[in-house]
């Protein structure tokens, strides 16, 4: 039986590439023969839209088969899993109703552990090698839920003048979460949307490399229009154009993540 590892992708800075990284790392792991469950924790539904067209995604959002309903009703999330067209890759879709999740959780008993409890049966089954969770760009009770349900945290950081904005708050929040979820491990920081010709790329690398006791993944995700085209047709970039630079980089990042998680 597989020992399921849960990894969340989080950054309170919007536009960091969380959803894209989560979706493509998940797909890459599935092509490596791993069974993967992706959980869309963001009201923007970008992770869901990475695998299903607009009409299908909105149908999930309006139905009772989405993460919002499962969490608010404090259900076992097994029945909220939907299959993608890709072998070994399933999704729990999101809903635009996630915009009210903070309010809905406020009065719940042990509210920071609701997602963790909802995943207990799935993890105990050993069906999946990995559960990857896409967190919204906020710091609050819902992101606390996501982190408390996770074994590892990956922080995607956009290589831009504003990409590092708020990273100190992210680290502070992580340390707070460690008080209630001491086993949560900061797996590393992944640089995304990089343009090596820009001066701020080197500044981003230098700043992140100087952080003590924080891993910076060797694989850097560069700007590639193929990513946008793949998103337009609701496909992972590797399924859309296997030999593109972005496809190769996400595969390398997935291999790095897999290596460090299994150590």
Descriptive account of the structure:
By secondary structure, this protein is α/β, with parallel strands linked by helices. It has one domain (5-261): Rossmann fold (3-Layer(aba) Sandwich). Helix content is 42%, strand content 14%. The protein has twelve helices and seven strands. The protein has helices at 18-31, 46-49, 54-62, 67-72, 101-105, 114-125, 141-148, 167-178, 199-209, 225-232, 237-240, 245-261, and strands spanning 5-9, 36-40, 82-83, 89-92, 130-134, 152-158, 185-192. It has a seven-stranded mixed sheet, sandwiched between helices. β6, α8 and β7 (185-192) form a beta-alpha-beta unit. α1 crosses α12 (245-261). The longest helix has 17 residues, at 245-261. The protein is globular, with a radius of gyration of 17 Å. The two termini are 18 Å apart.
Q: What characteristic shape results from the CA principal axes?
A: globular
- Low-confidence stretches are none
Class by SSE composition? alpha/beta
Backbone CA Rg: 17 Å
Question: Counting H and I runs of at least 4 residues, what is the number of helices?
Answer: 12
The CATH topology is Rossmann fold
| Corresponding CATH superfamily | P-loop containing nucleotide triphosphate hydrolases
What is the count of structural domains? Answer: 1
